[in-house]
Amino acid sequence: MIHASSNIDPHGSDTIIRSVPSPVPSSLLAWWFQCGKTEAQQEQQQQDPLGPTGCLEVIYGIALHYLHETLDHIALVLLAYSVLCVVLYRVMFHRATGGSRFGRWLVRRSHLPPCSRALLVTAHPDDEVMFFGPTILELRRRQCRVFVLCLSEGNHDRKGAVRRQELWDACESMGVRPEDITLVNATHLQDDPTAEWRAVTIANQLLRQLESLDAELLITFDKEGISGHPNHSAIYYATASLCLSGMIPNNCKVLTLETVNLCRKYLSIFDLPATLLLSTNWVILSWKARRAVQNAMRLHNSQMVWFRKLYIIFSRYMVINSLREINKSDVEFEILDT
């Protein structure tokens, strides 16, 4: 920087033109970089221009600063969301008397069609509690009689007899009568991810049960099958074929359990806001009822490998079920989309 001095030169010149170091760096990057340096480092910086290495250091420092700020904001958002979920869950099971219409809606822990007889269709022993436990407990709390149709005995690991007894024990622990459980042991419906379950065969089983039980509600998997198991999806397509052909009784509604993404699947009660906002039918259990579902799942002792132990702790399906009512138009759209 050029600086003009007002001192008088004793040899006759009016001003002395001299160069002095600039106290402000020539660029914003350099200024940002100097803010974090000591005086000695700043002196060295003034003597040596900012080189490629210095520029990289500056860019790294700025990126680190913004990263810290972003992580702080994310942490605050997650904390606020967690507090919201806990408060909402507590309010939902708070025994409030009276209150506004909004308040009564807010504390509503389930939204299911009224029925006195419901048929639950699963593929394997343990599906009824691993995925549908909250729905079974809620229906039994309403004094609805729940019938369970399991289409295979789960003999993939040669434990069919053991899993059969585990199915009965788990269902009884959730209030399902032993005489209301039907287990199909057919050669063409074996527990095998590679085996193709024909929709016609499953549809015949469903129709026979619906007609004999006079069920008002049919509950099963959606087309994704929660875990992606092809046997689960096959039940949906069999149910869809009955809807398309108009063979479902007029007084019977069909609900499918919604498959959620992997993140939501293991959020437990922290999936509560998303469920209430995105679902039309849902069941949310109290913490005590959640333990009842977990205990029922533990009765499937032959399936208690390490990852299922983690599943019963973190899975939303131990405490939350969100279901969607399907009709002929919905099925036509989904099948065309597939």
Automatic annotation (TrEMBL):
Pfam families: PIG-L. InterPro entries: GlcNAc_PI_deacetylase-related, LmbE-like_dom_sf. Coiled coil: none annotated. Gene3D superfamilies: LmbE-like (3.40.50.10320). It comes from the Eukaryota. Its EC number is 3.5.1.89. GO terms for molecular function: N-acetylglucosaminylphosphatidylinositol deacetylase activity. GO terms for cellular component: endoplasmic reticulum. Belongs to the PIGL family. PANTHER family: N-ACETYLGLUCOSAMINYL-PHOSPHATIDYLINOSITOL DE-N-ACETYLASE, N-ACETYLGLUCOSAMINYL-PHOSPHATIDYLINOSITOL DE-N-ACETYLASE-RELATED. This is N-acetylglucosaminylphosphatidylinositol deacetylase. It comes from Anopheles arabiensis (Mosquito).
